[in-house]
Amino acid sequence: MIVAIDGPSGTGKSSTSKAVAAKLGLSYLDTGAQYRAITWWMLTNGIDVDDAAAVADAAGKPVIVSGTDPSHPTITVDGVDASGPIRTQEVTAKVSAVSAVPEVRARITGLQRSIAAAAPHGIVVEGRDIGTTVLPDADLKIFLTASPEARAARRAGELKGADVSATRDALIKRDTADSTRKTSPLAKAEDAVEVDTTELTLQQVVECVVTLVEEKR
Ligand code: C5P
Question: Is 165 annotated for ligand binding?
Fold first, then answer.
């Protein structure tokens, strides 16, 4: 059972994906964390992330390993735990530039496909291009949406005390970059089920997705 969950930032992809995977005994992969990890490695190794050629040259260098237990997802870069550093504002501000570089996408997409193929009971993979590009044959594709206000309020809540309107602007900027890039932009697959989470609780979204998975089994 391969479940692809795509959508813009702040729609509840991570919380939903982890809860669905835990409930159904599936593995879980956060593909955004992989793009964040490669961005963090570039920043800490002095690569100019606004120079696409330099990013392309370095794309194959870091060793990125994702742990796929939904109750304890992990990410290491060259053997170092990167789960904290990949969430900094600096990485968040630069990740769209790095993830737009085709060599980066080719590298990370390869990793994602091998992780999905090795999952013993199936996997929930969350991202931006999972249903369209990474796993186009997924058994179920979900596209989560929510109003920009709801997304900004959720993200600002996670960042404890962050300004909602600044968070909204940053989020819209990142989504625009992600959906307008040339190589596998953020997009809803034609056969994806769209779920608007604006008025739903996390539990309601999880129940909705679990029901859709069970219908496919
Ligand atoms: O999901 P998260 O906000 O952590 O993703 C960080 C960034 O990684 C996105 O803004 C996007 O630039 C990139 N990304 C991507 N393709 C994916 C997942 C994430 O380009 N499948």
Answer: no
Whose tokens are 């996997």? That residue is: 123
Residues sharing a CB contact under 8 Å with residue 112, sequence separation 6 or more, in sequence order: 29, 31, 34, 125, 127, 130, 134, 135
Quote the ligand 1 centre to 86 CA distance (angstroms): 12
Query: Average pLDDT, stretch 76-104?
Result: 97
Q: Which residues of 23-62 are buried (b: 16+ CB within 10 A; e: fewer)?
A: ebebbbbbbbbbbbbbbbbbbeeebebeebeebeebbeeb
The beta-strand segments (E) located in 68-175 are: 74-77, 80-81, 123-127, 140-145
Q: Which residue has the tokens 């959906």?
A: 179
CA of 190 to the centre of ligand 1 (A): 20
- The residue contributing the CA closest to ligand 1 atom 16 is 128
ipTM of the complex: 0.99
pLDDT of residue 159: 83
